[in-house]
Amino acid sequence: MEMTIGKFAAAGQVGVETIRYYQRRGLLATPRRSEGVRHYGDGDVRRLLFIRQAQAAGFTLEEIKELLDLDSGEDRERARHLAKNRINALDTRIAELQRAREALQRLVGECATGKSGPCPILESFEL
């Protein structure tokens, strides 16, 4: 199934400018024009969805480009390495978010028990 850039962008739930940006970055190919219009196919949609899913997992565009390049080869070790690095970064971020959650829970408790003065939640965010 061939589609115009607008339909292609809609299929990937991105804007047309995002498609063009990905093309400039080498993540997506720029198809040849046919009758003045570029047409995209199912393979392009699969690649775009891969990019979006990899972004959702926290991979950078550079890492995604490398993963896409690896897909055409058989360097499983490098793909595993990239994924392990992403897992480590996610674990670090999760730990940071858990600490922030615990601190906020503590502040909520302090705010509920204090009867006078500024709310500890608001006070903690002051400059």
Automatic annotation (TrEMBL):
Function: Mediates the mercuric-dependent induction of mercury resistance operon. In the absence of mercury MerR represses transcription by binding tightly to the mer operator region; when mercury is present the dimeric complex binds a single ion and becomes a potent transcriptional activator, while remaining bound to the mer site.
Protein name: Mercuric resistance operon regulatory protein
Cytoplasm is among the record's keywords: no
CDD domains, per database record: HTH_MerR1
Organism of this sequence: Sinorhizobium fredii (strain NBRC 101917 / NGR234)
Keywords from the named record: Activator, Coiled coil, DNA-binding, Mercuric resistance, Mercury, Metal-binding, Repressor, Transcription, Transcription regulation
One Pfam family of this chain: MerR_1
InterPro entries for the chain: DNA-bd_dom_put_sf (IPR009061), MerR (IPR011794), MerR-type_HTH_dom (IPR000551), MerR_fam (IPR047057)
An MF annotation (GO) of this entry: DNA-binding transcription factor activity
